[in-house]
Amino acid sequence: MDAERPRSPPKGAPFAAEFTLLGLASDALFRQTPGGQFVRPFLPPERQPTTIKMCPTTESRPMPKKTVVKDYIRTIVDFPHEGIMFRDVTTLFADPRGFRMAIDQMLHPYAGERIDKVVGLEARGFILGGAIAHQLSVGFVPIRKKGKLPGATISQDYKLEYGEAIVEIHDDAIQPGEKVLVVDDLLATGGTASAGIKLIEQLGGEIVSCSFIVDLPALGGRKVLEDMGMDVHVLCEFEGD
Asked: Rounded to the nearest 5 degrees, what angle is found at the Cα of 11, between the Cα atoms of 7 and 14?
């Protein structure tokens, strides 16, 4: 028999915990003495390992309480360029409670209103738009970058910081007179949203509102949409860009 293989301790042994240490053999079990020292049971003192300091477990670290949608959104510094504070909603999407909270709050202002279609702006607007359309039991329509839709489309260009971009919608996706809710994750300069609005209006759709998770007030997108006569609903704001 291998003398170093740990055995079950005798009844009443004064050890508080048993666990496996990373980097050691799977059967290298340690136990904590009442004095706080970690030792291998049943080895003579001269063969005991040196003192081991254990890191606290995640269970011992109190997690910050998340009570609003903004609490679930993390900020990535210098992405995608230096000086940019990227508001990352994937952490919100990954949390079932946070995601449900966001969808419910995006829907709440329109309770009782007629909505025939939900339009999502590429790309994270697809995630939100699909979930909202499901809750409303209505159709979902994507607005995509140029060349991504397979059928006949109409297009609209809009300005970027450097140059311009084009978005498209299928020309049969919205019927004249349909009530439309536009959704996306973030409202910055309003360029993509304003282009999407123009596409919907070209097809005869009537926009009920535009709903976003995050607004960046410093970039002025909300004013751009409101100047177009749009109702705008946001869940939270982040200062700066």
From this structure: 90
Interatomic CA distance for residues 16 and 199, integer angstroms = 67
Residuewise pLDDT in 10s, the chain (241 residues):
555 554 544 454 444 343 333 334 434 455 666 666 656 665 666 665 555 444 555 455 566 789 999 999 999 999 988 988 999 999 999 999 999 999 999 999 999 999 999 999 999 999 999 999 999 999 999 999 999 999 999 999 998 766 799 999 999 999 999 999 999 999 999 999 999 999 999 999 999 999 999 999 999 999 999 999 999 999 999 987 6
Q: Is residue 124 among the annotated active site residues?
A: yes
86 beta partners: 76
Q: Which of 46, 59, 161, 239 is catalytic?
A: 161
Number of alpha helices (DSSP H) and beta strands (DSSP E) in the chain: 5, 12
- Model-level pTM? 0.73
Strand segments, DSSP code E, in 112-203 are 117-121, 139-145, 153-159, 164-170, 179-187
Is-catalytic flag, 161?
yes
Rounded Cα distance, 210 and 180, in Å: 9
From the candidates 124, 144, 201, 206, give the one annotated as an active-site residue: 124
Instruction: Write the Ramachandran bin of 177: left for phi over 0, alpha for psi from -120 to 50, otherwise beta.
Output: left
As a whole number of angstroms, the distance between CA 187 and CA 225 comes to: 10
Angle between helices 96-107 and 124-136 (to 10 degrees): 70
Identify the H or E element spanning 237: strand 232-237
